[in-house]
Amino acid sequence: MKIVSYFASAVVASLMFSTSLVAADIDVSFVDEKWNGKVVPIDEVCSDYNIEAGSTPSLYIENLPDGANKVILKFNDKTFVKMDNGGHGILSHKIEDETNNIEIPPQIGETFDLDEGFEVVNSHTGTRFNKKEGAYLAPCSGGKGNTYTVDISIVDSNNNVLATKELVLGKY
Q1: What is the pTM of this model?
Q2: Contact at 8 Å (CB) between 145 and 171?
Q3: 137 near 49, Cβ under 8 Å?
Q4: Is residue 124 within a helix (H) or strand (E), and if so which, with residue range?
């Protein structure tokens, strides 16, 4: 019985280790220098605190795994539970070519007008707080120091997750 238990533990540990290796393989960086992961750029916040709605950051993703078909971007406010877990919108971007690297262009917030190759997985949930409808809602805490992130998943054509990474967008 101990041998079976040990074997099962070893298999689980091995799977956990191999999953973390896949997740660690992709590298994600900001394309525009104004995004630094510390402070959200003031011109990229929601229209409540800006002249117009802010955009998602442009991202560069390296070391895409074989079979990568889409990038899923889940935008979060980690400080405000009601807007965490994709509360600021979940978008997907189709990977057109077999490539190791891809640049994801920025998308304007508070609209459903997205560039070709993008789809809305879930629109932002800020409408319950009287925010304008749209696929994405830029950081909108009013400068209270909330932490914003994006969870990035690389999926295959069957929506199996091949790799994941969390990127801190910054505080606002």
Answers
A1: 0.85
A2: yes
A3: no
A4: none
Measure the CA dihedral 117/121/125/126, to 10°.
0
Instruction: Please tell me the distance from the alpha carbon of residue 44 to that of residue 54, in angstroms, as a whole number.
Output: 4
72: tokens are 């899923």
Do you know the residue count of the chain?
A: 172
Q: Is the distance from CB of 149 to CB of 86 less than 8 angstroms?
A: no
Q: Cβ-count burial of 61 within 10 angstroms (0-12 exposed, 13-18 middle, 19+ buried)?
A: buried
The DSSP call for residue 33 is T
Q: How far is CA 114 from CA 11, 56, 62, 119, 165, in A?
A: 43, 11, 23, 7, 23
Please give the Cα distance from 154 to 166 (Å, whole number).
Answer: 12
Cβ distance 54 to 45 under 8 Å? yes
CA dist 142 to 19, 45, 58, Å?
Answer: 37, 9, 22
Q: What is the pLDDT of residues 89-132, one digit of tens each?
A: 999 999 998 889 999 999 999 999 999 999 999 999 999 999 99
* Element holding 154 (H helix, E strand): strand 147-155
40-93: per-residue pLDDT in tens? 999 999 999 999 999 999 999 999 999 999 999 999 999 999 999 999 999 999
